[in-house]
Amino acid sequence: MLKVYIETYGCQMNVSDTEVVFSILSAHGCERTQDINRADVIMANTCSVRDNAEQRIRGRIEQFNIEKKSRPGTVVGILGCMAERLKDSLTEDGKVDFVAGPDSYRRLPELIESARKGKPAVDVELSRVETYEEIIPVRTDSNGVSAFISIMRGCNNVCSYCVVPYTRGAERSRNAGSIVREACDCFERGYREVTLLGQNVDSYLWEEPDGSRVSFAELVRRVAEVSPLLRVRFSTSNPQDLSDELLDVMSAYPNVCSHIHLPVQSGSNRILEKMRRRYTREWYLDRVRAIREKVPGCGLTTDVIAGFCSETEEDHAQTLSLFEEVGFDTAFMFYYSERPGTLAARRYPDDVPQEVKTRRLEEIISLQCRKSLESYRSDIGKRFTVLVEGPSKKGAGQLCGRASNNKMCVWDDTEHKAGDYVEVRVVDCTSATLLCELV
């Protein structure tokens, strides 16, 4: 049996894809290993969203080649978005033996076989139909509590800064019945939380043979009804598609977690238009108000880009003011990194100096740290039902897990185990953790 080692980079979708890859390869007699020193096949499932992600992979390829040279017959492969973007160029220097894009994983057994025979192999053809819907992933999570379920692939938004539509192709939704069956399988195997994944989950739409349609809100409802003991999360939402119907489902089903990751990217309408985000600042704030009204206590997180093409100090100030007004729990914050092939790279000069990008990003981070602490402090004294994920990294005799609002909780506990539900009371906090006691 070939021993296969995979390092996964980037988003949760890549984690889900890695689980699909292990399932495909195990059906062809391969065995997963977490020890690179024992691997016959070494792969990286890659991300191209930011340049530093690609540079990190290039560094890992050098390390993979040290392993390759030490064990004749070992082959190296690159999967995912970076594979799709760079294609044949990855194999030119002989350090990478095979390349597979996000829609080519079914062909991995033959690509690996070709590489082991000394013939570099590349398949990065994008598909309009591939969703891997019938493949049951080999779960790679360590706690056995939370599982990812991919509900769609690709993206049709074509935001001007984003490489995803070019690396993952057009949007297509997966059969709703297969998603529910996978959720049932997860629950029967002991998982107590599933996260429904897509580049834009709110635009999920499946048409049944009888012509009826399953919206994302309806899909969430069906998964929630698998069991009241199965928590349901989802990511990522898009502001222009976030529906009141979904918020009503979240309100009606206690096991649908009260947390929405809602990327804003900028607080300036001018920049949002240049990013092709298809919503305005006003629309975004309206959606936030609807969330607060329909799902009280809902956790809210976001993404933001500092220093996008032509961004002025006034544009930046509008982003800061939006962060002040909304009060996100946490945020993923980056400065703009031009990605080759995107609309922005073709049309707009990357004209904000690096030192300005860095300074603006630091200002956003500083503001968000303050707002995060305010958000977490507001929960002191509250009680939450928490799904235990396992031992806390911060101290012996402590467990950790997330509340419905996605905030991490830590408490002293020697009685419960991963997968249990416990009631806790918040007694203190940091800007990233709720410090609790068992009720």
Summarize the structure.
The protein is α/β, with parallel strands linked by helices and 439 residues long. It is built from 13 helices and 21 strands. Helices cover 34% and strands 23% of the residues.
Tags for this model:
alpha/beta, six-stranded parallel beta sheet, globular
Q: Unreliable runs, pLDDT <50, ≥5 residues?
A: none
Q: Strand count, sense and closure of the main sheet?
A: 6 strands, parallel
Tally of strands: 21
Helical content class = 25-40%
Structural class: alpha/beta
Give the CA-CA distance, first to last residue: 50 Å
Rg value = 22 Å
Supply the number of helical segments: 13
Portion in beta strands: 15-25%
* Outline: globular
Mean pLDDT score? 96
The main sheet orders its strands as: 2-1-3-4-5-6
Account of the protein in words:
The chain has helices at residues 12-26, 51-70, 81-86, 108-116, 164-168, 176-188, 216-224, 244-252, 269-275, 281-294, 313-326, 343-347, 354-377; strands spanning 3-8, 31-32, 41-46, 75-80, 98-100, 121-123, 146-150, 152-153, 172-173, 193-197, 205-207, 213-215, 231-235, 259-261, 299-306, 330-335, 383-391, 398-403, 408-412, 421-429, 434-438. With 439 residues, the protein is α/β, with parallel strands linked by helices. The strands form 6 sheets. A 6-stranded parallel beta sheet has the order 2-1-3-4-5-6, with helices on both faces. Strands 17-18-19-21-20 form a 5-stranded mixed β-barrel. The protein starts with a strand and ends with a strand.
